[in-house]
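Researcher: Here's a chain I'd like modeled. Treat it as a single chain, no partners, no ligands.
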Amino acid sequence: MEKKAETYDISFKKKALDLYHQKKNYSAVSRELNIHRKNIQRWVKQFNVDGIVALERNAEEKVGLVKSLHLLLKILKRK
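Model: Modeled as a single isolated chain. Structure tokens:
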């Protein structure tokens, strides 16, 4: 069984960042949002380096990549 990667929209990531800046605790935020703390750590690091643009760019890139992979799988199944 394949494990599907979860994708989060920019508004969810902003909410996680806001909660982190209030609580200063990755584990507390991860429990509240029911996501792995590593996601929050990564988003905070990206935000600190490149600002909100980094989170938006990453979300768009992942959506494009997922669409490309689905198209490729369809093509390969036809052969």
